[in-house]
Amino acid sequence: MVSFVPPASPPPSVLPAGLPPELRSLARDLERHGFRLRWAPPPLARAYGQYVPASRTLWVAPIAFDLGIGPQTFLHEAVHAVQSCPDGRLTPIGWRLSLDPVVRQEIGGILTTRYHHGSRLLEQEAFALQGQDDAVARLRIALKARCRPSG
Question: Is 101 a domain residue?
Fold first, then answer.
């Protein structure tokens, strides 16, 4: 009898192969500031990513990379991590981001149909940043300004 043994998945803390070098560096910066990164399905069912403030854990589902949206999902959740500094309560960072009107309308539609009213400003900021060319630079500046390194 031959039995099939599926290939082992990498541990949830190992950076995914599809993560570009600039985002790998950002991931290390987040970890140095006490955030836990999990490259596994998040606790919230059917979500591609999730940030859990109580444990300072950022989750990105591997399927997000399979679908080609892994980097954007990681950036989105990284925004929420930085929004949680310095005290664990998510507050807007306050970026003024220019968006194409069509993109702004699409974000508005997503927020209207899928998010609680109280989190709209936080989600709007995360969605807006994930598509910016300077997203990583902006996140690094905000991380250093709002969050304390751990240890």
Answer: no
CATH of the domain at 64: 3.30.2010
Residues written for the chain: 151
| Predicted structure pTM score | 0.83
CA distance linking residue 62 with residue 48, whole number of Å: 8
DSSP per-residue letters across 73-111? HHHHHHHHHHHTTTTSS-----------HHHHHHHHHHH
Q: How far apart are CA 106 and CA 64, in angstroms?
A: 19
Total domains, the chain: 1
Tokens of 48: 């591609």
Evaluate whether residue 45 is within a structural domain. Answer: yes
Per-residue pLDDT of 91-132, as tens digits, reads 999 987 776 776 666 766 666 566 655 677 888 888 888 888
pLDDT band at 77 (very low <50, low <70, confident <90, very high): very high
Q: Would 35 be classed as within a structural domain?
A: yes
What span, in angstroms and rounded, lies between the C-alpha atoms of 44 and 18?
22
Assigned domain for 64 exists: yes
Q: Convert the pLDDT of each residue in 43-72 to its tens digit.
A: 999 899 999 999 999 999 999 999 999 999
